[in-house]
Design a protein that fits this description.
Blueprint (H helix, E strand, L loop, with lengths): L2 H9 L3 H16 L2 H22 L2
Length: 56
């Protein structure tokens, strides 16, 4: 995905969403490689649940 598109999306987040995003990104950035894989898996599962919920 284009970095500019990601940054534009970030600029449209609410203050609460920005806080959640930065907290999650900071946790990812300082995580070990194993922990990063676990975080990615968690994000993928959350996205899957949200997509399934939106399509219901």
């Amino acid at each position: 995905m284009n970095v500019a598109r990601l940054l534009l999306g970030f600029s449209k987040l609410s203050k609460a969403e920005i806080k959640q995003f930065t907290t999650n990104m900071n946790q990812y950035l300082i995580a070990s490689p194993l922990a990063r894989r676990q975080i990615i898996k968690m994000w993928e599962e959350e996205l899957h649940v949200e997509t399934k919920r939106a399509n219901s």
